[in-house]
Amino acid sequence: MGKKKRSLFLMALFTAFVLAACGGEQASVSDDEGIKVVTSFSILGDLAENVVGERGQVEYLVPIGEEPHEYETIPSDFQKVSDADVFYVNGFGLEEWLERLVQNVGDVPIITVSDGITPLPISDQDGEDPHAWLDVANVITYVENIRDDLTERDPDGAEEYAANADSFIAELEELHTWIHTEVESIDESKRAIVISENAFKYFGEQYGFDTVGIWELNSHEEGTHSQIAAVVDTIKEREIPAVFVETTVDKRYMETVANDAGVAIAGEVYTDAVGLEGSGAETYIKMMEHNVRTFVDGLNQ
Ligand SMILES: [Zn+2]
């Protein structure tokens, strides 16, 4: 191949590459179904759905009822993520299975929607506590990150994303204020959340609760005799009136704690997933309202 011929060939190749790249990008968000978003778990799914609105579809991977820390991916997850325009994850180490997944899903952009939030440490070891979404103020940051990413990815939808995010953030601000008001009815000395996985640290920091878990993270779940005994001691010392269980965690450990401490399990709360259809906690806002009512009722005994 002569010099001139070769540069023409390279130029043609380059042009084809650029065209393919542009064509691909446009097709991904302007086809009939709109933008395709996949999130790692159901709570992020609900947040994304509120921002995407009518402009596309949102799916999530970890089924409701399963916990997202040590989730085992199934073959259809790889397909879902490969077919998506973007994959939203929580970060702070929540998705311990992420590395395995992303090795097999091509070049789908993976966006960490907790960006900009200062993580809390895990109490008894190195690492970050992933449960930032249990503080509504953090969730407003998640929503802003989702809005900004969608706007960049699909600029034609900018106005719609902005309007959707604005009205959702207004609802979240209302929820945030409501929680602060609602928890005031609980005596300060009783403001402690005892739960299997110590997932309410961000919630506690924001809304004024101490939190006690049998273990720190579900992925380090143990429930040893000494862990159970330590929680029982704390309940007795502090005269905490009630304990709680999660929808996504084995309840037997907390049943032992409740028995040994002589307190009631005052209800089930949502930490790592929204509720199933018909539960009354199908959305992030509803699950937070349910949690707060359960805490207020349980701790006011
Ligand atoms: Zn968790």
Please, could you describe this protein's structure?
This is Metal ABC transporter substrate-binding lipoprotein. Keywords: Lipoprotein, Metal-binding, Signal, Transport. Belongs to the bacterial solute-binding protein 9 family. Pfam families: ZnuA (PF01297). The chain is an alpha/beta fold and 301 residues long. The protein has two domains: 30-179, Rossmann fold; 186-299, Nitrogenase molybdenum iron protein domain (Rossmann fold). 47% of the residues lie in helices and 15% in strands. The protein has ten helices and eight strands. The chain has helices at 3-30, 42-52, 75-82, 98-102, 136-153, 158-182, 201-207, 225-238, 252-261, 284-299, and strands at 35-41, 56-62, 86-89, 110-112, 192-197, 210-215, 242-246, 264-269. The chain has a four-stranded parallel β-sheet, sandwiched between helices. Strands 5-6 form a two-stranded parallel sheet. A two-stranded parallel ribbon has the order 7-8. Helix 2 (42-52) links the parallel strand 1 and strand 2 (56-62). Helix 5 (136-153) packs antiparallel against helix 6 (158-182), helix 6 (158-182) runs parallel beside helix 10 (284-299) and helix 8 packs across helix 9 (252-261). The longest helix is centred in the first third of the chain and has 28 residues, at 3-30. The chain starts with a helix and ends with a helix. The protein binds zinc ion.
